[in-house]
Amino acid sequence: MASLRWRGQAVQYAVRPCSLGQVLVAATGAGVCMVAFDDAEASLVAAMRARFAGAVFADAGDATEISRFDAWLTGVRHAILHPRQVPTLPLDLRGTDFQRTVWQALRGIAPGRIASYSAIAARIGRPRAARAVAAACAGNPVALLVPCHRVVREDGGLGGFRWGIDRKRILLERERT
DNA sequence: CGTTAAGCTTGAA
DNA sequence: TTCAAGCTTAACG
């Protein structure tokens, strides 16, 4: 399904070191389609290739001219240190209706604020879908830009974070105040 | 408090 | 289409 969804799509990407390890930013001509963290560049690229199976990849590091992509990359890198000032970049998100609804709802959480999985579930009109909301968060392709790190457990726990719970903790820490 | 079951979506079989 | 599993939670012992 996803393989067909991205087949033939041109995806430009770049991996850069950052305060959270390595960050990968990928985008199509329509907008950013992935922002992920990990310790190793290789695993980030592998994850990208798996998610966008069938796409045609191009390492932005090979580009010679200043592009719109570079601006997006810069915006993301800046947001890592200043998660309260996440830039509004064009996004190219593809997922199920449910996922897109959840991701949209997440973008409604103000910087510095947090919401529980059940609160998001309620907000989208599915009060009992807390766990499904968590699954949608886990499927969020763009860290930061869709602030899934602002979603925590009802009982005060941090919940999980696809790219490492430590990074979630750090991001929330940086947003506080 | 540790367990358990209800609840909803998703990806794989 | 069936099924197990997940960034949950409310209920129970």
**Number of β-strand runs:** 6
Please, what is the oligomeric state?
A: single chain
The Rg value, from CA coordinates, equals: 16 Å
Strand content range? 15-25%
Q: Ends: how far apart?
A: 42 Å
Would you mind describing this structure in some detail?
- The chain is of the alpha/beta class and 177 residues long.
- It is 38% helix and 19% strand.
- It is built from 7 helices and 6 strands; from the N terminus they run H-E-E-E-H-E-H-H-E-H-H-E-H.
- It has helices at residues 2-6, 41-51, 68-81, 97-106, 117-123, 130-138, 165-175, and strands at 10-18, 21-28, 31-38, 56-59, 115-116, 151-152.
- A 4-stranded mixed sheet has the order 3-2-1-4, with helices on both faces.
- A hairpin with a 2-residue loop joins strand 1 (10-18) and strand 2 (21-28).
- Helix 5 (117-123) packs across helix 6 (130-138).
- The radius of gyration is 16 Å and the shape is globular.
- The model has no long low-confidence stretch (mean pLDDT 95).
- It binds a DNA duplex (13 and 13 nucleotides) through helix 5, helix 6 and strand 6.
